[in-house]
Predict the structure.
Amino acid sequence: MNNILVIGSGVMGNGIAELLSINGIKTTITDTSVKSLNQSKEKILFSLNSLVNKSKITNRQKNIALENIDFKEKIDQKMNNLDLVIEAATEDFNIKKEIFSTVEKKISPDCILASNTSSISISKMASQLKFPERFIGMHFFNPATIMKLVEIVKGQKTSTETCNKILEFTKRIGKIGVISKDYPGFISNRILMPMINEAIEALRQNVAGVEEIDSVMKLGMAHPMGPLKLADLIGLDVCKSILEVLRDGFNDAKYNPSKLLVKMVNEGKLGRKTKQGFYNYNIDKNN
Ligand SMILES: NC(=O)c1ccc[n+]([C@@H]2O[C@H](COP(=O)([O-])OP(=O)(O)OC[C@H]3O[C@@H](n4cnc5c(N)ncnc54)[C@H](O)[C@@H]3O)[C@@H](O)[C@H]2O)c1
């Protein structure tokens, strides 16, 4: 696994590409949005500098990362030398389906295809592929450079060989892989998202304010971050999409996104990435 393509240069794609390049892996990142790809360069450089400042990586590792990463608007050629493609595009089945059916035609038979989806069925995405046995879920957590876990999701047809290769690779990049079966939300978001949704409902019903709700979970449950701040970090649009996948996947209205969450997404308040969510994020204030 020395040559990897990351598709999508949003919150997760940037983090994954940064992580891979720090580990000395030739990484190409691409996005259909030129704006997002341009911002990606700045964001990755900013993040590498802050990892150096926090002594999480050395200056040498930062330079290795910068040498290894390539930003490409179009990735038509040279796809046959890829070992792994990690898709981290918008959480939408049709977008991902289109990406994988295009990419599968261009890669070599040995290349593994992975999706960083938070909730969409791996078996469903694989069902339209010619070689579903090399398709797998590789669910990184935000920020990908810091968080230890990769939830590895085995679809119905994912081969043991693919799963073992990804487990081994996960170790190589300093992460711990945990294997989940392919149920909506897998392990992580099946547990996390109902909690976040309930915190938003508590806010909507005016049980308490944002700070109070987050404080209860931090101080009373020893969570490192309150659920509303975590929702801002994940992205409120991503939270809403995951809840919809849970609701539709289990056919259970208990997963309906809170009306307040829907309202905020419609207003473009998506959390950190738009600088407004349950908290306000401005340049000077790193809250
Ligand atoms: N945000 C999180 O905390 C988090 C954590 C784990 C997994 N995920 C998953 O990672 C994926 C990406 O989430 P994100 O938070 O980075 O989203 P994001 O909205 O920050 O970024 C998505 C990017 O995908 C790009 N994109 C859309 N269609 C594309 C296409 N056809 N080809 C290439 N790029 C395309 C968009 O332009 C955008 O830049 C989702 O599947 C999400 O569920 C998110």
Notes: The longest helix spans residues 34-53. The mean pLDDT is 95.
